[in-house]
Design a protein that fits this description.
Length: 213
């Protein structure tokens, strides 16, 4: 029930579900970005309540996915895209193609958190939101060369990320694979046109309203 519980979220918006304050803590033993899928642990295939399933099955890039409600939503329109296959929380070229295909058909954005970078369920999923995040509203400027190709960066963003055109899926897949091989935690933001890759420091920095507006 969207109107059941709400809680203040700083000065900017309200948290839709106040139970996020009691959300189960993610496992401490997150040491490897590519941690194998554990069928005995919680995964999204164990959800049986049909009220939590918005769209199932959903065939994307010739693979089965489904869209679920988020048990702990930050705001209205916060959903999950999950794989119906028993696979770990690791980005692959197939998942990249699936997300890109979905976002070409709607106005939503998607977030992906790797294992060791805020993901709490080691089963492939990403967050769907019905809005454009602030970082995606910043102008893009020339960034560094990545595997011989010039990427983009958001001008004025106090953090660091690589930005690629959604048409560069093969290159993005190579960069993600390199980070996985390097055990580099990472986050990703997908819009209909761009993919933002955020390498996450192995040592968590102090939080800041400049970096996390």
């Amino acid at each position: 029930d969207e109107h059941e519980v709400k809680a203040p979220l700083g000065l900017f918006r309200k948290r839709l579900d106040a139970r996020r304050n009691t959300k189960p803590k993610k496992p401490d033993a997150q040491l490897l970005v590519c941690t194998p899928f554990d069928p005995s642990a919680f995964n999204f295939t164990k959800i049986e309540d049909p009220r939590e399933k918005i769209l199932t099955p959903l065939l994307l890039n010739n693979a089965p996915y489904e869209i679920l409600t988020n048990k702990f939503p930050l705001f209205a329109g916060h959903m999950l895209l999950v794989s119906k296959l028993p696979v770990a929380q690791q980005m692959t070229s197939a998942h990249l193609g699936a997300i890109a295909e979905l976002l070409q058909s709607c106005s939503m954005s998607a977030y992906f958190n790797s294992w060791c970078a805020s993901a709490s369920v080691n089963h492939f999923h990403c967050h769907l939101i019905d809005e454009v995040p602030p970082v995606a509203a910043l102008p893009l400027v020339r960034g560094p060369l990545v595997r011989g190709v010039r990427c983009l960066q958001p001008e004025g963003f106090p953090g660091f990320c690589y930005v690629f055109e959604v048409t560069q899926l093969e290159l993005v897949g190579e960069v993600v694979l390199a980070m996985q091989h390097d055990n580099q935690p990472h986050n990703a933001l997908f819009t209909g046109r761009y993919i933002y890759l955020f390498p996450k420091p192995l040592q968590r920095p102090a939080r800041s309203f400049e970096l996390y507006p």
